Amino acid sequence: MDPFIRHTGVSAPLLRINIDTDAIIPSREMRLVSKKGLGEGLFASWRYVLPDSREPNPDFVLNKPEYANTTIILGGNNFGCGSSREHAVWALAEYGIRAIIAPGFGAIFYQNCVRNGILPVVLDNETVQSLAAEVEENPQVHQLTIDLEQQTVTSFSGAQAKFEIEAGHKEMLLKGLDSIGLTLTFEDDISRFEQADGAKRHWL
Amino acid sequence: MAKTLFEKIWDAHLVKALPDGTFLIYIDRIFLHERTGSIALQSLAEAGRKVRHPERVFCTMDHIVDTFPGRGDDTVMPSGKNFIQATRKEAKAAGITLFDIGDDRQGIAHVISPEMGIVQPGITLVCPDSHTCTQGAMGAAAWGIGSSEAEHAMATQTLRINKPKLMRVVFEGELGAGVTAKDMILHLIGQYGANGGAGYAIEFAGSAVENLSIEGRLTLCNMAVEFAAFTGLVAPDQKTYDYLEGRTYAPKGKDWDEALTYWQSLVTESDAAFDKEIVINASDIEPTVTWGTSPQHAAGISQSVPALESLASDDARTAAQRALDYQGLASGDALAGLKIDNAFIGSCTNARIEDLRSAASILKGRKVAAGIKAICVPGSQQVKAAAEREGLDKIFEAAGFEWRESGCSMCFFAGGEHFGAQERVLSTSNRNFESRQGPGTRTHLASPATVAASAINGVITDPRTFTEVN
Ligand code: SF4
């Protein structure tokens, strides 16, 4: 996974509250035996004119030319609530989203983001709104910069907000470790366990 | 300090207490199936990671595979064939053991794992399937996980988890005639709610549990997850050892003796503490049937659909009202006598040989009522073969049941075969959620004996009215 240290990018506001994982990736889009191939289905119900078409809905924020190459989403509260499907995060990652800034996240979705290299940033509603207002003036130019080491979000005009993140999550994202990678940093402990246990329960 | 069975297993698998408050727990065996295992194996390979101990990973085809006689890779489930073929390819590449279509060991994961001695007392076993708790009946810590966790377990042979709280559910006394493990667990959930076990590892104990066969204990533990528990388990005893001895993956010779000594230490000490204890008088339990769309909507077969005012909370009343609308029932409707359209005997809950024998003892020499669609899906090919050796298939077929190849079949609906909308199904499976067995289908859960008796009468029937029941 790509480490997340510092990232600057185009940010798209999707400020409605309770955007659930079925809105992020409708279940009908989960057809393949894969975590891949989901990017096209991202926000499919909003992004395309008809449910099963691929004709872009010009009114949807990610389809507007000024939001081309969006890598950051500014979301409403309880972003990613609903079904536990990890496909929602796989779809966001494949589309190119690196971070989501919102007043709050669905708990499993938050975990899934960290596990898949997407930084979930919690900032209060007012701050998210004011970042969105600045971005909207000129999205391609008014990009946001997120510095995970410093735990800051800085707008084009220089407004800065600090955010909190759990140390374990921060480390995983900074080092680009998925949870498997993180656990493998305990390889010595696992091997030692296996040796001792293998002597005890050798019949397994 | 005196320890419970679960704590002993936990401590024996603790690799490391992690700084974030979770625990790195060693996982002995991993079971996969084609619905989620395919994705887990594939994405592990794509990430360039290896299965750490392929000899500890087993995979079956149960969820998507067809259960029609003469089946191949084609299934009625949309794009099901892709999952089957991807699983076969990935399992081969990863070097894990696959019980494929056509293999006489194939069957539902939670049926074949005990059957082959893959799950054993004192081990940790995980599977990306919520009913993995079934296997706790062998005295193991076995629980369901997500697809990413399955990858984690395969790559590291560990999981990072929080320690569950501990509960003991004691069934004291003797079960009445015609009352089964399925009735015990439905009774428990009916009394304490579908959320009653949330956050707990539950040890089932008491004389009525000790008196259950291993298969009965598997049925009991199967629905621990419907009680929202982390898992359920039963302490191993002589029945467990007798069941295991000689099975393919059970230890042999000198290993057996050493394993046995270890297993015998796996009991809850008398002064060990639980965070919660529930005691149920086994003789209070009747054959039990669900009326609504949650397993907690359960009642004894002599009862009626309860009055909504009798329910504890507003939420419960709202849910029950919605359930009644969905099920086409009203408070006060008697359960016995409700007309059914379908009978389903199958699933990881109740499709083992004793379940089929119990149903067959009622079906023998009888026919299902006119218009009833009745299906029996053995839980594994070995169960199917054993049943055929005893001639049970002939009894089922003569009674008007379809006799299928093993698999999950119509226990759940994911786009494939299903029962009709508004049709009432009496089912030996474990979930009666809305549309679980087909869009709009009305599911009632019960034991194999109750399903067999009801299929004959065409209405929900107390199996004790058939004298052959033993
Ligand atoms: S039989 Fe039903 S409950 Fe059991 S594993 Fe299969 S689908 Fe799940």
UniProtKB/TrEMBL annotation, chain A:
EC nos: 4.2.1.33
GO biological process: L-leucine biosynthetic process
Reaction equation(s) it catalyzes: (2R,3S)-3-isopropylmalate = (2S)-2-isopropylmalate
SUPFAM superfamilies named among the record's database cross-references: LeuD/IlvD-like
Keywords on record: Amino-acid biosynthesis, Branched-chain amino acid biosynthesis, Leucine biosynthesis, Lyase
Residue ranges annotated for the Aconitase A/isopropylmalate dehydratase small subunit swivel domain, each copy included: 1-125
Pathway involvement of the protein, from the record: Amino-acid biosynthesis; L-leucine biosynthesis; L-leucine from 3-methyl-2-oxobutanoate: step 2/4
Any single Gene Ontology cellular-component annotation: 3-isopropylmalate dehydratase complex
A molecular function GO annotation: 3-isopropylmalate dehydratase activity
Signal peptide, first to last residue: none
Protein family: Belongs to the LeuD family. LeuD type 1 subfamily.
Quaternary data: Heterodimer of LeuC and LeuD.
Protein task: Catalyzes the isomerization between 2-isopropylmalate and 3-isopropylmalate, via the formation of 2-isopropylmaleate.
PANTHER family linked: 3-ISOPROPYLMALATE DEHYDRATASE SMALL SUBUNIT, 3-ISOPROPYLMALATE DEHYDRATASE SMALL SUBUNIT 2-RELATED-RELATED
Listed name of the protein: 3-isopropylmalate dehydratase small subunit
Organism: Alteromonas lipolytica
Gene giving rise to this polypeptide: leuD
From TrEMBL, chain B:
Keyword entries, A-Z: 4Fe-4S, Amino-acid biosynthesis, Branched-chain amino acid biosynthesis, Iron, Iron-sulfur, Leucine biosynthesis, Lyase, Metal-binding
Cofactor(s) of this protein: [4Fe-4S] cluster
GO terms of biological process kind: L-leucine biosynthetic process
Keyword tRNA-binding belongs to the record: no
GO molecular function: 3-isopropylmalate dehydratase activity; 4 iron, 4 sulfur cluster binding; metal ion binding
PROSITE patterns from the UniProt entry: ACONITASE_1
Domain Aconitase/3-isopropylmalate dehydratase large subunit alpha/beta/alpha: from-to ranges: 7-458
Lineage top rank: taxon: Bacteria
Signal peptide (from-to): none
EC number, UniProt record: 4.2.1.33
Entry annotated with the keyword 4Fe-4S: yes
InterPro entries: 3-IsopropMal_deHydase_lsu, Acnase/IPM_dHydase_lsu_aba_1/3, Acoase/IPM_deHydtase_lsu_aba, Aconitase_4Fe-4S_BS, Aconitase_4Fe-4S_dom, IPM_dehydratase_rel_enz, IPMI_cat
Catalytic activity reported: (2R,3S)-3-isopropylmalate = (2S)-2-isopropylmalate
Pathway: Amino-acid biosynthesis; L-leucine biosynthesis; L-leucine from 3-methyl-2-oxobutanoate: step 2/4
Pfam families, per database record: Aconitase
Function: Catalyzes the isomerization between 2-isopropylmalate and 3-isopropylmalate, via the formation of 2-isopropylmaleate.
Subunit structure: Heterodimer of LeuC and LeuD.
PANTHER family hit by this protein: 3-ISOPROPYLMALATE DEHYDRATASE (PTHR43822:SF9), HOMOACONITASE, MITOCHONDRIAL-RELATED (PTHR43822)
Protein name from the UniProt record: 3-isopropylmalate dehydratase
Species: Alteromonas lipolytica
